[in-house]
Structure formats: structure tokens, C-alpha cells
């Protein structure tokens, strides 16, 4: 009996065969896409304001013993490969902190390349934190909006060797308060419109924002020293950061 004559006698089997084939193809496509995304998600993105020490952190992650000259850049620093302190090959991206490149950070890395990011290293200059706290909070707020709390974040409280640097607890508490104030001001701006863009708010708790309002968010604060002032009695220390990368990777 030929295949055509078989279907002449049983028309019900053709939709079944088509359904099975369609399901298999859909499963195969989903599997390949998942595999592709999971393989590529190895980027750790370093962000922060200018002069926060991102490039020093970037360099010390690659080679803790290498002395690097700090400078303001308008180009990304990238590294792809194996680093002894990490068990897998890793991609590091040091994105410039200058304000005029901020739109590229969000349009490229936090939109188009978002699925490649395993973790975000948010570098803060602890020695000038009080002066720039609101600007730091604004950047962190927008990052949290774009990532929707789906990516692990390490707030690296850098330059702890400098006298009067703020510790991690002060930085965490202050940012919590400032994120609440930003929440309040942006909610007020939305109230002046039709109020339909609620996705631009981190939460609806206004200035009463607490870290606990973001239950999906995995954010760690710790103190590091990626470079030393002259005559400092401290030592380079990025151990908490390398441990965090190993934990999330």
C-alpha cells in the first residue's frame, strides 16, 4: 500500500503527523535558542560614574599584580578569555562613566546585549560618595528599571584606602533613601501626564522605598581597594568581588 492510498483510507492521521512535526520543530528551535543564550551569558559589565575607579577594578580582575594608569576613556575596555581566579572563560566590559555616553550604555548593553550579561559590577568612589550620592542613585535607579531586577549586581565600594571613605553600610542606606526620593519625584512627574508609563517607576512605594520592595533583586555591597594612594598602609583587596563573580558564575 502506498502512502497516498493509506491517507485515502484514514484522513485523521495527517493532522496528527503535522501536529507532531510542528511540535518537534518548535521544541528544537526553543532548545537551540536557550542553548545559544546560556552559552553567551558570560559578560560582567562594569559601570559607574567617571573617576570611580572602574578601569582599575577591570585591570585588577585580569591581573591583580599589574599596575595600571587610570584615565578617562570614551571607549569600552574589553577582555575575553581565561583568568586564573575564575573557573570559566569570562568576558569583562568596562563601560566609560562619562555622561554623554550614558545613552549608549542603555541602548546597547542594557537593551540589545542584555541577555549576554551575567552580572553588573557597579563601582562607587567611596571617598567622594557624599558629594555624588544623588547622581550615583540616578544611574543605579535606571539600571534597575532596565534590568527589572533580573541580573545580579555587586556594588563595589571602592577606594577604601582613602581617609573618610564611606563604608558599605552607609552607602547602602544612603542609596536606599535616594532611590526613594527619585521614586517620589518620578511618580509626581507621571501624575502630571496620563500616568500610563508606570514601568518607569522602580516601585509604587514612593519615598518609602526599601530594598525589600524588590524581592527578585540580588544585590551585594562590599568594600574593595583597586588602587592605592601614595604612602598608603593598606593593600590591594578585591577578594570579595572575585568571590562574588565565582558565586554567580
TrEMBL record:
- GO terms of molecular function: GTP binding
**How the protein sits in the membrane?**
Single-pass membrane protein
Q: Gene3D superfamilies attached here?
A: P-loop containing nucleotide triphosphate hydrolases
Q: Name one GO cellular component term.
A: endoplasmic reticulum membrane
Listed transmembrane segments: 12-34
Task: List the InterPro entries.
Answer: P-loop_NTPase, SRP_receptor_beta_su
Q: What is its main location?
A: endoplasmic reticulum
Taken from the record, one Pfam family name reads SRPRB
Q: Keywords, A to Z?
A: Endoplasmic reticulum, GTP-binding, Membrane, Nucleotide-binding, Receptor, Transmembrane, Transmembrane helix
* Localisation: Endoplasmic reticulum membrane
Family under the similarity heading? Belongs to the SRP receptor beta subunit family.
Protein name listed in UniProt:
Signal recognition particle receptor subunit beta
Amino acid at each position: 500500500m502506498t502512502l497516498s492510498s493509506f491517507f485515502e483510507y484514514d484522513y485523521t492521521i495527517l493532522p496528527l503527523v503535522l501536529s507532531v512535526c510542528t511540535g518537534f520543530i518548535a521544541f528544537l528551535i526553543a532548545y537551540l535558542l536557550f542553548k545559544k543564550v546560556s552559552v553567551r551569558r558570560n559578560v560582567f559589565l562594569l559601570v559607574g560614574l567617571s573617576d570611580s575607579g572602574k578601569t582599575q577594578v577591570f585591570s585588577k580582575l585580569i591581573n591583580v599584580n599589574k599596575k595600571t594608569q587610570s584615565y578617562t576613556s570614551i571607549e569600552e575596555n574589553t577582555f575575553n578569555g581565561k583568568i586564573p581566579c575564575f573557573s570559566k572563560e569570562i568576558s569583562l566590559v568596562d563601560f566609560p562613566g562619562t555622561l554623554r555616553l550614558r545613552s549608549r550604555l542603555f541602548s546597547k548593553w542594557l537593551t540589545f546585549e542584555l541577555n549576554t550579561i551575567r552580572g553588573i559590577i557597579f563601582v562607587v568612589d567611596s571617598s567622594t560618595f557624599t558629594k555624588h550620592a544623588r547622581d550615583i542613585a540616578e544611574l543605579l535607579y535606571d539600571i534597575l528599571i532596565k534590568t527589572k531586577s533580573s541580573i545580579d549586581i555587586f556594588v563595589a565600594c571602592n577606594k577604601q584606602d582613602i581617609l573618610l571613605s564611606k563604608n558599605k553600610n552607609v552607602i547602602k542606606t544612603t542609596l536606599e533613601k535616594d532611590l526613594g526620593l527619585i521614586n517620589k519625584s518620578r511618580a509626581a512627574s507621571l501624575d502630571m501626564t496620563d500616568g500610563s508609563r508606570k514601568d518607569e517607576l522602580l516601585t509604587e512605594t514612593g519615598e518609602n522605598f526599601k530594598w525589600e520592595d524588590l524581592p527578585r533583586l540580588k544585590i551585594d555591597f562590599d568594600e574593595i581597594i583597586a588602587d592605592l594612594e601614595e604612602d598608603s598602609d593598606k593593600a590591594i583587596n578585591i577578594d570579595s568581588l572575585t568571590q562574588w563573580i565565582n558565586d554567580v558564575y
